[in-house]
User: What shape does this take?
Amino acid sequence: MACNLKWTVPEEWRFRPREEQISLIREALSKEMNRPEIDTAIYKDLLSSLEAKTSSAWAHRFVTTNWDYLLQREILRLSLSKLPAWLSETHVFHLNGTVETSDDDSNRSPFLLETDPPEQRIGAVEANIAFNHMIWQRMFVIVGISFDCEMDKSLLWAFSGVQDDMPIGESRLIIVNRNRQALDDVSNSIQRALPQTSIAKVCAPFQDWIAEGMPELGAEGVLIE
Assistant: This one.
């Protein structure tokens, strides 16, 4: 939303065959990402702030359930000659697939629809790597995801299944959402699945939180002035 990418799947498409839906989504969203109205300044600001302020003890990794690749595009535009200390890797992990294409997509997560049942999620190199990275972490910033659809709920409960043995079970989460009800709903969903987590709720637009310096990350020592 902060990039002015407001496109959603038309309701009438949901009644079409699954592969036809995916084809239509890929074509439409690819076009939407290149509309003149799309403004990725927020991602530029985010990356600039992380580069300037990240403590030497920390590095960032990006994981998304979105299909677009606007953030990936901005990272590539940094034209990094080597991986900087503040970034774990330049790849943005897409858990539900992406409209981005490459010469070899065999390792990418399969394209998943919001209406798909949880069993549609099968093992894929990209999603498995992301999941295994995440269960070993103790600090997360969550933006946008609602866990409303069964597909994303299944992801949350997959984390729940390993919480007793992995660091994610006692992680600290910062949830950013401009909508108070949505913020509370996401927090409650996570707390039910991962009851030992510590949650800081930020009721503000993502771009405002970045402009304010992401103070919750500063309080955790992730960012320093």
